[in-house]
Each structure stands twice: as C-alpha cells, then as structure tokens.
Specification:
The protein is an alpha+beta fold. The mean pLDDT is 91. β13 and β14 form a beta hairpin. Helices cover 31% and strands 29% of the residues. It has helices spanning 15-25, 80-94, 108-115, 134-141, 186-199, 260-265, 269-294, 331-353, and strands at residues 2-7, 30-35, 46-53, 58-65, 69-72, 99-100, 129-131, 146-151, 161-166, 169-174, 179-183, 202-206, 218-226, 232-241, 256-259, 299-306, 312-318. The strands form three sheets. A six-stranded mixed beta sheet has the order 4-3-2-1-5-6, with helices on one face. Strands 7-12-8-9-10-11 form a six-stranded antiparallel beta sheet, covered by helices on one side. α1 (15-25) packs across α8. The two termini are 19 Å apart. The chain has three domains: 2-100, Rossmann fold (3-Layer(aba) Sandwich), CATH 3.40.50; 108-125 and 211-342, D-amino Acid Aminotransferase, Chain A, domain 1 (2-Layer Sandwich); 129-206, no CATH class. It comes from Geobacillus thermodenitrificans. This is YheC/YheD family protein.
C-alpha cells in the first residue's frame, strides 16, 4: 500500500478533517499516518505518531518509518516548538525520497511582488510596499485616509493593524477594531514601526473599502484543489462576513460563512458582470502561475475583496487553507474535498513510479 502522512505541530490539530480523509483511504489502497516533525528520532529516523485502523476507524499509537508521501499542515508561530520544527520540515522537503502534496509558499511579500509583475493579475493587486521605516507609512497616508499593516508570515487575521488619520493624530487599531494607540508625534510612530518589525516583517496596503451596507467587513473565500489528473479545480466559493466594527472577516475572529450565490444576487446587474469577470480571470490564471513561480502546490485558499465600485482585489493567497467554509456544502461535495488528497496522492505516486 501507499503510505501518506499528515504532518502537524499539534497532535490534535485538524483531527476531524484528517479522520474523514483517513476513512476513505483504504478504498484507494492508501495507509494513513499522522505525526509531528518533532517526534522524528534523529538517530533512527523512525516516527512516533498515529496510524489509522480502517477496521475500527480509530487512530492508534505507532512507531513507523517516515511515509514517502506527506501532507504538510504545519502552522508556525514564534514559539519554541515552531522554531524547532521549521528546520526539520525544511530537511524533509529537501529529501529526494519524499514527496509532499504541496511545498508551500514563501511570505506574503514575495507572493504579492510576483503577482504584481503578471500582465493580467497585476490589475487585481493592491498597491503594496514593505514597511521598513516611518516614512513608508507617512508617504502612503499622503494619498490615503487609512492604511493596513499586514505581517508577511501571518494567518487567520492575526497581527493586522489599521492606521488611519484622525485630524492631526493617527489612530492605530487591531484587526478586531480595538484602538491600540493614538499617535501625535513622529517618534511615537517610529516606536510603533520598530515594535511591529520586531515581531515580523510587515507590508503596507491602502485600506480598501470592503464592507457590507451594514458596515461589516467581508471577503470572498475560494478553495481550490488539484484533482486526480493534477488539474486545478474550484471546490467551494463562499462569503465571509465579520462583525460590525472590526476590520477582518476571518472565521476565527467570529466571521460568518454565507453562500456566494446569495451575496451575488444582491449586486446590481452591471456590477455583477464586472465582479464575475474579475473573479474568473483570477481563478483561471493565478493557480497555474503560482505553481510555476513557487513550486507545486496541492491546494490554495484564495481571498478576494470586492470594493464598492466593483473592483476585485487579491487579498491573500494561502497554501494551507482552513476547512470551515466547506460546511456550507452538501455532503457529496464535502466528500470530494475529503477524497482530493488521496486522489492527488495516487497521481503523484504514478509519476514517481513511472520515473
């Protein structure tokens, strides 16, 4: 049988998702494991983790060799476990005897910089600059009422700050709309920039007008995966709507998931045509381009914003997307998402075996 390993930092992370995939694995002739990179013995290269038992539909403790096919679902922070796991994952991805379903993306800056050079996609990329010094913020604020600072390695809306002009001062709010500072002097702004860059590298964009008539932040989430032939397929599109007064439409921050079709029905016909044209151009072009630029991926979580004038903007491209948006799908469409890693694993295996 082919062996596929789910790799996470936390043993309980995404357990429901992995179990649903594992329940279907035996049908494809695939045995499934899950483990943390921190549980690889450096001497023997054996792993202490879990193996799925199809007879009982349960995970059992096990010691095993590193599976030849791996599904990277590691999310890193600034903690010690993350710092230890990153070089181990880099080592695994360099090994010629191992194949990952996807090799991940670099930081957001590299992705946005690449997209901004594409002849079609560049029209959908917001103006983006690195936050390196105080003047980067001040220069952007000469032309904008507000800017948003995003961590280049952030996820789930964490670490985002909105800086907006209020008379002769600047108000700094976090993604949840909580005011963190009121800045009246340049040296205070310098302290903020130093503080942000101490945590992560940051980039700046204009604060786009992306809210509902009820002043709720929203974005569009698209989940794309490769099928059994290695072709990109759209699995689900949904609208994420945040709470009034916040700046992020992230599910972990309390956003609702709503059907895309319901949202689209509310748009005036001319605006609807403009929005759909932008969406289809991006979905048709971006996945293959990202693959070619940064290496093979298995799935993409694509976040798009739609401004009041119908302009479509690329907000984020995530190679390790969440799964909560699939809850709006009927069971048969959810099943296709659970089977996708297995089908793609077989596709990769056929390529390995034909070498």
């Amino acid at each position: 049988m082919i062996s596929l390993g789910f790799v996470t930092l936390d043993e309980q992370q995404e357990l429901t998702y992995f179990t649903e995939v594992a329940k279907r694995a035996n049908h494809y002739g695939i045995s499934v494991y899950r483990f943390s990179p921190l549980n690889i013995d450096p001497q023997t290269e054996h792993v202490h983790g879990f193996v799925f038992q199809p007879e009982t539909n349960e995970w059992m403790d096990a010691v095993f060799t590193i599976p030849p096919f791996l599904y990277d679902r590691c999310f890193y922070g600034h903690d010690d476990r993350s710092k230890k796991a990153k070089p181990i994952m880099h080592w695994l991805k360099q090994r010629p005897d191992l194949v990952f379903l996807g090799y991940g993306l670099p930081g957001k800056w590299d992705v946005f910089e690449s997209l901004s050079t594409h002849p079609l996609l560049s029209a959908y990329v917001p103006p983006t600059v690195r936050l390196e010094r105080t003047d980067d913020i001040l220069e952007l604020l000469r032309h904008e009422q507000a800017v948003v600072a995003k961590p280049m390695h952030g996820s789930s809306g964490r670490g985002i700050y909105v800086i907006q002009k209020q008379g002769k001062t600047l108000s700094v709010q976090d993604g949840l709309g909580q005011e963190r500072a009121v800045i009246a002097r340049r040296r205070e702004l310098e302290k903020l920039v130093t503080s942000l860059n101490r945590r992560d590298s940051y980039m700046l964009q204009p604060l786009l007008s992306l809210s509902t008539p009820a002043h709720e932040p929203f974005d569009l989430r698209f989940l794309l995966q490769k099928d059994e032939g290695g072709r990109w397929v759209e699995r689900v599109r949904a609208v994420r709507v945040g709470r009034p007064g916040t700046w992020v439409a992230n599910i972990r921050s309390g956003a609702d998931i709503r059907p895309f079709a319901d949202w689209l029905d509310y748009l005036p016909s001319p605006k609807r045509v403009l929005v759909l044209d932008g969406i289809e151009t991006i979905i048709r072009t971006l996945p293959t381009y990202i693959d070619n630029e940064f290496g093979s991926l298995f799935e993409i979580g694509l976040d798009l914003g739609v401004a009041d004038n119908g302009a479509v903007w690329i907000l984020d491209v995530n190679s390790k997307p969440g799964r909560k948006v699939i809850n709006i799908l009927p069971p048969e469409q959810q099943n296709a998402i659970y089977e996708a890693p297995l089908r793609y694993c077989l596709f990769l295996a056929s390529g390995v075996n034909s070498r």
